[in-house]
Amino acid sequence: MASITIGVQSMLNTAVYDSYTLADTATVSTLKNYIYANTSVVASWYSLYFNGTELANASTLSSYGITSNTQIRSANRIADLATRQARQEAKLALAGLDRTASGETRTTLTINDLPTKYSGNTLVDNANSGGLVIGRPWSGTSLVTSNLILNLDPDNASSYSGSGTTWADLAGTAQNLTLYGSPTYTSGTPSYFTFNGTSQYANTATTGIVNTTAYTKSAYFYLNGYQDNNIFSGDGHFIYMGPAASVDKKIYCGHSDWGSFTAYPSTATINLSTWYHVTLTFSTTNGMSLYINGVLDSTYTVLKTAHPGTGTASIAAYGSGNLLKGRVGKVLCYNTELTAAQVLQNFNATKTAYGL
Questions:
Q1: Fewer CB within 10 A of the end CB, N or C, for the chain?
Q2: pLDDT tens digits, residue range 1-19?
């Protein structure tokens, strides 16, 4: 038995041959264990070749005439894995190893970060709303998905195909909204719905979407005119502009039994023809906090009582009235009060498409 030092073509950089020292009586499987220990590249992802012959895992290196200074070629075999899920996971994992080896610091997505993924050989929607952004596949920031109860995304064809009256929920709870009055859908960066302020809105009769004692609601919106512009409201709860929006240009939030629809105004004023991201968090412990473009605008603690409604959701309306004149993009709702860091995380994960 003699020790030999050989070169093996790297799966992370095919121009490089990594050096390994081991006994010439070692098996090919043992060599692959060395490779995994050095690079974390899984043995089933590749085959090894010497002089045009594929090396069998159980055979010894000496049986192929492999000696010191021999160079062994590698070949990617991910396409031969048994299921599409295994191939998808392996490709993402190998990409992550490659990025780490090259010094890239951004996080690589896993299969659970994709908008769709394979389960075995079946393509399924992914409950994670972070999603793969076309053209930016290695985005290091994703949405908060824990306690996500509603996810409406005009950018995602699984949420809106481009036609019809159903705006589908991607959160896995199938709490779809119905579009009324044929709001105009625009596909692009971003994709969004334009509501005319007189007859167009979206809502659902499904109850329990907006929790009574703790929730977070958020939406991207863009005003085309000042009026009683409801952004994300429902039975017992609201985020809207007005009623004197043309004068004070503020956002108002609250619950319908708090005695006034204008008790909690924003500090900031809202301009026309501008995209904004608004998030409202609430709990009966901490009251309300309003965030605009990921930054805390104000808090309201005078009243902290649960909203009295059934938890329905309306976009661009309060019920079927007080309609918004403008655009609405991505909409989210959680059945918990997000932290300030989580609100900012969601904004950072989605803001680029809106030019923010």
A1: N
A2: 789 999 999 998 888 999 9
